[in-house]
Write a structure and sequence with these properties.
This protein is an alpha/beta fold and 252 residues long. It has one domain: Rossmann fold, CATH 3.40.50.1360. 32% of the residues lie in helices and 17% in strands. It has a 7-stranded parallel beta sheet with strand order 1-10-9-6-2-3-5. Strands 4-8-7 form a 3-stranded antiparallel beta sheet. Strand 9, helix 7 and strand 10 form a beta-alpha-beta unit. Helix 1 crosses helix 2 and helix 2 packs parallel to helix 3. The longest helix has 18 residues. It is globular and about 45 Å long. The chain binds 2-amino-2-deoxy-6-O-phosphono-alpha-D-glucopyranose. 2-amino-2-deoxy-6-O-phosphono-alpha-D-glucopyranose binds next to helix 5.
Length: 252
């Protein structure tokens, strides 16, 4: 069977982090102006950081971001409330507060219990909350060096919804920098929006920085659409914008 991609993702090449921030902020600004009370999907990680910085600047210049609802892509399982590396902390302190979004419009899966049943329920609640909000309007995502989206590791089913996942060794290694350099200190489980959840967003904005992502990004853009490289699924999304620096696009 041959499947024709819905539309080729639009790829914007940028020279540096500031330009990445500006180009990504152009897309978010357009979204906020069209939908001041829209639902913005938020990724953590270092790649979108220039975007948050630029949005804060634009807010100072009058962009109204305070009506947005922010929905997190993922969260670790088993980090206590207020842990500095929990994604709830990140989204609240680094994105919501600077953009003027009240806490009651910040939707992050509750990963505070290490109990598998509790985490599974929290993932189901996350999926339901997204549905109750009418879905995500604009979803920002990064890509893992192994091609993961959110915490959907290679092998994740395309039809997956928000759920508890085991993190790949590669991911724990990559994220060890946030946990004192020790991969064993990185939680082994996380709650993530599923691939199907991500694909339901009306517009997906993928931001990518650095050489370590080049192989995965090239495969996601030009390789077969396969569950062994979750980001390749974006080829089937009707509206994807990719903003990447030259290093990340090095292998394309
Ligand atoms: C983390 C996050 C992802 C993020 C990715 C890339 O594991 N769960 O949502 O997109 O890794 O992170 P970075 O941008 O820091 O490379």
């Amino acid at each position: 069977m041959t499947v024709t991609p819905a539309a080729r993702p639009e790829v914007v090449t940028v020279g540096d982090a500031d330009e990445l921030g500006r180009r990504a902020a152009d897309i978010v600004s357009e979204f906020v102006e069209a939908e001041p009370r829209g639902v913005l999907g938020v990724a953590t990680g270092s790649s979108p950081e220039p975007l948050w910085a630029e949005l804060v600047r634009r807010r100072r210049d009058g962009l109204r971001t305070d009506g947005l609802t922010l929905v997190a892509l993922d969260e670790y399982v088993g980090l206590p409330a207020g842990h500095p590396e929990s994604y709830r902390t990140f989204v609240r302190d680094r994105v919501a507060a600077p953009l003027g979004v009240d806490d009651d419009r910040v939707v992050v899966p509750d990963g505070t219990s290490a109990d598998l049943l509790a985490a599974t329920r929290a993932a189901e609640v996350h999926e339901r909350r997204i549905a109750d909000l009418g879905g995500v309007g604009l979803q920002i995502v990064g890509i893992g060096a192994n091609g993961h989206l959110g915490f959907n590791e290679p092998g994740s089913p395309f039809r997956s919804l928000s759920r508890v996942v085991e993190l790949a060794d590669r991911t724990r290694l990559d994220n060890a920098r946030y946990f004192g350099g020790d991969p064993r200190a990185v939680p082994s489980r996380a709650i993530t929006q599923g691939l199907s959840t991500i694909m339901s967003a009306r517009h997906v904005l993928l931001v990518v920085r650095g050489r370590t992502k080049a192989v995965a990004l090239d495969a996601a853009l030009h390789g077969p659409v396969t569950e062994s490289l979750p980001a390749s699924l974006l080829q089937w999304h009707p509206r994807v914008t990719i903003i990447a620096d030259r290093e990340a696009l090095g292998a394309s």
